[in-house]
Amino acid sequence: MPTLENDRPTGICRPGSQDFDRVIDAFNERLFNIPYPTEASALFAPIDYTIESGGKRLRPTLLLRMAMACGADAMDAIDSAIGIELFHNFTLLHDDIMDNADVRRGRPSVHRRWNDNVAILSGDAMLTIASGYMNSMPGDTGRCIFELFTKTALEIYQGQQLDMEFEDRDDVSVDEYIRMIRLKTSVLLGCACRIGAMLGKASDYACKAAYDFGDNLGLAFQLRDDLLDTFGDPVLFGKQIGGDILNKKKTWLLISALEQGNREDICSALDAKTDDAEKIESVKSIYRSLDLDVKCQQLVDAYAQRAISALDRMALGNVHSDYFRSLATDLSQRQA
Predict the structure, then answer these.
(1) pLDDT averaged over the chain?
(2) Which of 50, 113, 122, 256 lies 20 to 30 Å from 309, alpha-carbon distance?
(3) Which domains, from first to last, does the chain contain?
């Protein structure tokens, strides 16, 4: 198991203060020591395996930091942060089964390390445990948090359904794609930020602004991910680029190319019987000819700016505002 120090969020999730470092340490201590039932312990081994694989911990960091920014004792927000992180990892575990993915975070995915049945059942257990953490806050605030969580979970499932449907469609529009990634990715970041604000007893207006910050941050994050998968540096990105091209995945780049370019040329390049490297370069050349690499980054920057504008509506103190502003900038320029 990684040490807590080594697993502390780094890079885009840098904590930014000694007080918050202590919160993160407490979060990690609790996350790595979830009190599972003793019977049928093999059910929970894949959960620990998933947690130990690391990750950016972006969603719990947003929740905890927003709670602190809105005046809450962030230690009181740790249960909700654990619930958000477990839920996020549950979605990844099931995604890997549906995508038949072999690797997650540099390690064999759960369904490869064990098998599909184990991955499905342990994923179900992870969802149930996550729901317990999300439903642990008493009173009206707790009820509202759980209602938001369940609404968000259903939206994420809707996003996954749309993503699967897009695989069999050749007429997906950019607007439909943005709607899909908002449901599949962004709403959970919005949920995390809003829960943090709710725990800090922020006004409804401020809670809505917190949600909008996370929502737009998520769109910037996913679009940047699309860009990096095709145009990123494989050394910095941590994996080979071009996977979306080889899998003909409906991304903003491909959908925009089909809308703006010569559909026949694009389909021909995707279906060419050439080696992978040549196919990737051929499609990238089409994207560049349409300036899609530049346009995609402009859209990333626009969503990051919308996130910052939402943040400004909250009128947070300078320290917290500067942290979230830096986070939005880092996400929009990240290389990994």
Answers:
(1) 91
(2) 256
(3) 1-202 (1.10.600.10), 205-336 (1.10.600.10)
Specify the amino acid at residue 19: D
Q: Can you tell me the distance from the alpha carbon of 260 to that of 21, in angstroms, rounded to the nearest whole number?
A: 47
Identify the bridge partners of residue 108 per DSSP, sorted by sequence position: 103
Q: What is the pLDDT of residues 122-151, one digit of tens each?
A: 999 999 999 999 999 999 999 999 999 999
Query: Is there a contact between 192 and 149 (Cβ–Cβ < 8 Å)?
Result: no
Pairing verdict, β 107-108 and 103-104: antiparallel
What's the pLDDT at 3? 28
Q: Rounded distance, CA 327 to CA 64, Å? A: 14
**Sign of the CA dihedral 237, 238, 240, 244?**
negative
Q: How confident is the model at residue 234 (pLDDT cuts 50, 70, 90)?
A: confident
Cα distance between the two ends of the chain: 23
Burial 118-144 (b: 16+ CB within 10 A, else e): bbeebbebbbebbbebbbebeeeebee
- What tokens appear for 104 in the block? 């997650």
DSSP 3-state assignment of 244? helix
Torsion of CA 157, 132, 65, 177, to 10 degrees: 0
| Model-wide pTM > 0.85 | yes
CB atoms within 10 A of CB 258: 18
Q: Is the pLDDT of residue 11 over 50?
A: no
| Residue 166, helix vs strand vs coil | helix
At 7 the pLDDT is 38
Q: What is the pLDDT of residue 76?
A: 94
